[in-house]
Design goal:
The complex is a heterodimer of chains A (592) and B (562).
Chain A lengths: L7 H5 L9 H16 L27 H6 L19 E19 L2 E19 L29 H32 L16 E3 L9 H13 L7 E19 L4 E18 L5 E7 L8 H20 L6 E7 L2 H11 L36 E5 L5 E2 L2 E2 L16 E5 L2 E2 L19 E2 L2 E2 L3 E6 L5 H15 L3 E8 L13 E10 L5 E4 L3 E3 L9 E4 L4 E7 L6 E7 L2 E9 L19
Helix pairs in contact in A: 2-4
Chain B lengths: L1 H16 L8 H18 L6 E19 L2 E19 L22 E3 L5 H32 L17 E3 L9 H13 L9 E17 L4 E18 L5 E10 L8 H20 L6 E7 L1 H11 L31 E5 L5 E2 L2 E2 L16 E5 L2 E2 L19 E2 L7 E2 L3 E6 L2 E2 L1 H14 L5 E12 L9 E11 L5 E4 L2 E5 L1 H5 L2 E5 L3 E9 L2 E9 L2 E10 L22
Parallel strand pairs in B: 4-6, 8-18, 16-24, 17-22
Antiparallel strand pairs in B: 1-2, 1-5, 2-3, 5-6, 6-7, 8-25, 9-12, 9-16, 10-11, 12-13, 14-15, 18-19, 19-20, 19-21, 21-25, 22-25, 23-24
Classes of the chains: A alpha+beta (592), B alpha+beta (562).
């Protein structure tokens, strides 16, 4: 078993002090009180977070946290109410509070469909009973924290309100934790791990307090932009349904733990996205979408020109012939190369321990590459690195930059694959076989990429890459190759490797005429971890692809920086669905 | 053929007398144009022909702010417009909406987004697509109906699927939201502070919501309706946990038409103090045991009681559905309540005896004017609440076809009024209860002063019983002593319990809330006086098993702070 020695007292002396922030103060004070009340051993927690004033006005004005905590006003829990024995004492408590402000609006055919604003907050309490080697946390994918709660937690940074909410949730979580711990100990009597593993890695406390940021919002301008873009669809009768949506989110994230970690982050998220659908010749409904740059650097004319190009590209898709069955080389360009990595490599980089459970069908979705650590999994020219500390790449900003993850750990640069050899995985504080310690990649409750860089020591120019595809096609007796420029993005979870990847923009490349022919309904089939070995060559010029997992306010952004990717061989096919009857009615606007 | 003629006749007759106060809005124009152009095209499509297209649009502009112990927990603003379309193929006699026995059929378009800004072209760019899709579903649904009829036994109720209705053209000015949000936010903070400083109040919520709602209906029969209203609700909620783990709470809601009509500070403070006192008393109250004996159901509790056990069972469509218990289907003309009690439902009322009602509307969701329905006259069942889905003996709608946007309307309650011709003061009713306790030689009677809600099962798949969930229950001893108790629910079957009502008081009060059923959550009110029931059964309620908080709450750091 691997371990590191903790020395909270000495390490805490170098940690930055808490800023003057009522939310952090409330969280810290409630944490200290809970730690005292629930008797977390002194050697496992930071002795103090410093002294400050308790906000006055609503409560009695008191200063000095320890003084407050030790004062006669403090009423401890009834000792009889606490379950017996040190085994039922927590060794770790953490609190997370997130305060949101969101603005959302959508438009269709030039008019607003709806708009809404909301201010709300959510919290999370993690209480671990037992010790680092064995605690109450359930095994498997869904073991992080209490799963989030919204139990009347103030959205207006109210000191006492936040404390009261955390107190309530702590009490509930503590009770659940005791029961979980009891069940887990019973389970351990009947199951045995192949290799002993700690439940929680020991880590040095880390603090990061982002300076307060302004929440600038030009909401009226964004609403005008979605009106403007959605108005364009009045020019395209081929499009049956369309909607433009603007979403702006501001999030304040706060975290404190009994080990002494703490952070405050100010995030903002903004997007304008357009969705459209239409009927292809054979009656299949096709859907696509694009995002719109709403930054001040983009003038209206350029913005609309780009949007028109996207709409026209989709209109061409509707008229394109369907793809037929195919087996051979495929060239993934730009977004398609990045999405290929997101949907095939990223799920394999999320290694979690095999769950121990009495359930026959326990949730075992962990990477099946765990036994391949330090072995070759791709061609030797391929390397894969994740670096959330990077902010920009060339002139492009990187969406996957962050300072700390859900567990308050700093996001670290990691070499996942070096010259084809698997070196590590995305890691939380939950150790797995042969790997101990967080690398700060637990975000939004799942192991996530930050900025993922794919590189090759044998990158080819675009021209040579195409020539290579031609050569591979000829070797396999194919008249044409496939070039995919866009794949349907993975929106909801990075935890599962889907065997089918759907193309949004794909072309047949005719070996004789060198002509590209747009095809529709192309899907790559039988994608598996073995597909990684089919990465034959890559391009030389990486492209930055910023995306996110999850919808709206709970989304987690990331970036993939990759050159084009040439797959040696893969199966592709056309539409598998049956088309529907064409409409009897028409949009009256185009009937004039 | 005869029916078709009668519809045309009604349309001609009534459209002449309809009124129009407003110019047609973009919504009405878009819906009208869609009806006008789509029906002829769809009638030429292959397969079964449509005979009816109906559109509904609902607009909502809503502001909500919630507070807890003096802090804002959530604040939201929303403006949206939604639509739904109903396409009927076949004929009024038999169409795609016909109930499919042991299966599923036509679902309709469901709810879809529409541009909230007025623009006819933008509105129609969405409407045509859903009309086309719904028409195809209707044709498939009608095929399923015909197949189902072919393989199932003959139906007992052979009523038509759709009834004719007067054609209404009534356009009113839209309701708009006019609110000082900052002021109301502060007010919620202030009100929520009223619950601060009470260690036994573990959770509290003060929620303020105000919404301007506008509804539009246009159909191929010629109906064109728009009407709107503002709805405002303030609710107060506090909860605690008893030593035995039971979660206890108090809840009060105020429903008004405009925010300024809400109770003033003094009244709210008094309400809050009463809630806290009641919660503290509940926490100390002993558990009651299962029991059968006489009981007084106080006015608002009685209103919930009647809503659950009578109201849902007189909804017309349930008399036709073979999966329903149809408790009262064959009891029309028979006495089901004491002769001194009458029950009517009148959604055209906005108040009754000075009480604000929430279940009012000028036209139902099928475009039929709301009207009073005398359900029970002097204890005798006379009528059912009807939508445009006829049942044997009741061929037309009486303006109770209701459904949330996206849900097919069915017959539902609006404002249900329980009236009595034989009343007495509440004090006299309590004396009668004590007399009944003595007469039956029971150790005590029960008095239910507040009920949180209830539910009833009307399906034949389940026991056709009801359950009503009391919050405040008192044991009334023969000597007059009152003792607050907790931990019991009222259960029973309707026919038995109705026969045991022996007296009523004159203290009418209203219970308003949102009633959930197959056509969605709808605002309803029920008014009732307190009633004496000679025999009522109560059963033990489930008790949550969590201990009260082990951790001391932070409030205790603040002793003397307020």
């Amino acid at each position: 078993m691997l371990s590191i020695t903790l020395a909270f007292n000495s390490s805490s002396q170098n940690l930055p002090n808490f800023p003057d922030d009522p939310v952090l103060k409330a969280m810290r004070d409630e944490l200290l009180r809970s730690s005292d009340s629930l008797k977390i051993p002194e050697n496992l927690r930071i002795p103090d977070f410093g002294n400050f004033d308790i906000p006055s006005g609503r409560g009695k004005n008191m200063s000095g946290t320890r003084e407050v905590l030790d004062s006669k006003n403090m009423v401890g829990p009834d000792p009889a109410a606490l379950p017996d024995g040190p085994a039922n004492r927590p060794y770790f408590i953490s609190y997370t509070v997130e305060i949101y402000r969101t603005h959302q609006a959508s438009a269709s055919f030039g008019k607003l469909v709806g708009e809404g604003t909301s201010n709300f907050s959510r919290g999370d309490v993690d209480i671990r009973i037992g010790d680092y080697s064995l605690d109450n946390t359930p095994e498997g994918r869904w073991r992080y924290g209490s799963g989030g709660y919204q139990s009347y937690i103030p959205s207006d940074a109210d000191y006492w309100g936040i404390r009261k909410s955390l107190w309530w949730q702590s009490d509930l979580t503590f009770k659940r934790a005791i029961e979980q711990y009891s069940r887990k100990k019973m389970l351990m009597k009947t199951k045995k791990r192949q290799e002993p593993l700690d439940d929680f890695s020991k880590e040095k406390p880390y603090r990061f307090f982002q300076p307060a940021a302004d929440e600038k919002l030009e909401w009226a301008r964004l609403k005008d932009i979605i009106r403007d873009v959605s108005q364009l669809f009045r020019e395209y009768p081929e499009i049956d349904k369309s909607q433009a949506e603007a979403l702006v989110q501001f999030k304040k994230h706060y975290f404190v733990s009994s080990e002494g970690s703490a952070n405050r982050l100010f995030d903002s998220f903004g997007s304008i996205s357009v969705e459209m659908s239409g009927l292809a010749d054979n009656g299949l409904i096709l859907k696509d979408g694009f995002s719109v740059d709403y930054g001040p650097g983009e003038d209206r004319e350029t913005r609309l020109k780009k949007a028109r190009q996207e709409i026209e590209r989709f209109c061409n898709q509707l008229k394109a012939p369907p793809m037929e069955d195919y087996f051979g080389p495929v060239l993934l360009e730009g977004q398609a190369a990045a999405e290929f990595i997101v949907q095939t490599i990223v799920p394999l980089m999320q290694a979690e321990r095999d769950p121990m459970s009495d359930y026959e069908y326990a949730d075992n979705t962990s990477s099946d590459l765990k036994k391949w650590l330090n072995k070759r999994i791709t061609a030797p020219h391929i390397s894969l690195t994740d670096d959330p500390t990077s902010v920009v790449y060339g002139k492009d900003s990187l969406g996957g930059h962050y300072r700390v993850d859900d567990e308050g750990m700093p996001g670290k640069r990691i070499a996942l694959i070096e010259d084809g050899i698997l070196r590590t995985f995305y890691m939380s504080r939950s150790p797995i076989e042969k790997l101990y310690g967080s690398n700060g990649h637990l975000r939004g409750g799942q192991l996530m990429p930050g900025n993922l860089f794919l590189s090759s020591s044998q990158g080819l120019s675009q021209k040579k890459l195409l020539k290579t595809m031609e050569k591979l096609c000829k070797e396999k007796g194919n008249d044409y190759g496939i070039i995919i420029k866009r794949l349907e993005p993975q929106k909801y979870s990075l935890g599962y490797l889907d065997a089918t990847l759907k193309a949004l923009e794909a072309y047949k490349y005719d070996l004789k005429t060198k002509q590209l022919t747009l095809v529709r309904n192309l899907a790559l089939r039988d994608v598996s971890r073995r597909t990684l070995r089919d990465i034959y060559r890559t391009g030389q010029r990486p492209m930055v692809y910023n995306s996110q997992i999850g919808s709206g306010i709970q989304s987690e952004p990331f970036a993939v920086i990759t050159p084009d990717i040439l797959l040696d061989q893969i199966e592709a096919s056309g539409p598998s669905e049956v088309g529907s009857q064409p409409p009897f009615l028409k949009n009256p606007f185009f009937e004039k | 053929m005869k029916k078709t003629l009668s519809i045309i006749f009604l349309a001609f007759l009534l459209s002449g007398t309809a009124f129009s106060e407003e110019k047609p809005s973009a919504v009405i124009s878009a819906l009208s144009h869609q009806v006008e152009i789509n029906l002829p095209i769809l009638q030429k499509a292959p397969g079964d022909k449509p005979y009816f297209i109906g559109y509904r649009v609902a607009e909502e502009e809503k502001y909500t702010v919630n507070g807890s112990f003096g802090a804002v927990t959530e604040e939201r603003y929303l403006k949206e417009r939604s639509g739904m379309v109903d396409v009927r193929v076949g004929s009024m006699k038999l169409d795609n909406t016909h109930n499919i026995r042991e299966g599923w059929g036509y679902w309709g378009s469901g709810k879809f987004d529409l541009p909230a800004e007025d623009d006819q072209a933008a509105l129609e760019s969405v409407l045509w697509w859903y009309t086309d899709k719904t028409f195809k579903q209707a044709q498939k649904g009608f095929d399923a109906v015909k197949a189902n009829l072919a393989v199932k036994v003959e139906e007992e109720d052979k009523s038509d699927d759709f009834s004719p209705a007067p054609v209404v053209v009534s356009l009113s000015a839209p309701a708009r939201l006019d609110l000082d949000q900052a002021r109301w936010k502060q007010r919620v903070i202030d009100i929520s502070k009223l619950f601060d400083g009470y260690p036994d109040v573990y959770k509290s919520e003060v929620a303020f919501a105000v919404a301007a709602e506008n509804n539009y209906i246009v159909n191929s029969e010629g109906a064109k309706i728009s009407h709107g209203r503002v709805r405002c609700r303030l609710h107060l909620y506090i909860s605690t946990i008893a030593e035995d783990g039971m979660e206890l709470y108090r809840f009060e809601a105020f429903d008004v038409r405009e925010a300024k009509s809400l109770p003033d500070e003094a009244a709210l403070k008094s309400t809050a103090q009463r809630m806290v006192s009641e919660l503290a008393a509940l926490r100390q109250a002993p558990l009651a045991e299962p029991y059968v004996g006489p009981a007084v159901m106080c006015n608002r509790a009685s209103a919930v009681f009647f809503h659950e056990i009578l109201g849902h069972r007189v909804e017309g469509h349930r008399q036709k559905d073979v999966t329903e218990g149809q408790t009262f289907k064959k009891k029309v003309g028979q006495k089901i309540l004491p002769g001194f009690i009458s029950v009517f439902d009148d959604p055209s009322l906005s108040s009754f005896k000075g009480l604000n009602l929430m279940g009012d509307y000028p036209y139902d969701n099928e475009g039929v004017a709301s009207q009073r329905v005398n359900i029970i006259e002097n204890g005798v069942l006379k009528n059912f609440l009807m939508s445009r889905s006829p049942i044997a003996g009741f061929g037309v709608s009486n303006g109770h076809g209701r459904g949330d946007i996206g849900q097919a309307p069915v017959s539902r309650m609006g404002n249900t009024i329980i009236s009595s011709q034989q009343t007495m003061s509440f004090a006299a009713l309590k004396k009668l209860l004590i007399a009944e306790v003595k007469r039956q030689k029971k150790p005590y009677g029960l008095m239910f002063t507040d009920i949180s809600g209830g539910f009833t099962m009307t399906s034949t798949y389940m026991p056709q019983s009801f359950k009503v969930l009391p919050v405040m229950v008192y044991k009334i001893y023969p000597g007059g002593r009152e003792e607050l108790v907790r931990g019991i629910d009222i259960s029973g079957t309707p026919l038995t319990v109705f026969s045991k009502i022996t007296a009523t008081a004159d203290d009418y009060d209203v219970f308003s809330g949102f009633c959930g059923a197959e056509s969605g959550y709808l605002p309803v009110s029920c008014v009732s006086p307190s009633i004496l029931i000679s025999e009522m059964e109560v059963e033990k309620r489930m008790i949550e098993q969590d201990k009260p908080p082990i951790l001391p709450q932070p409030m205790e750091l603040r002793k003397g702070g307020r």
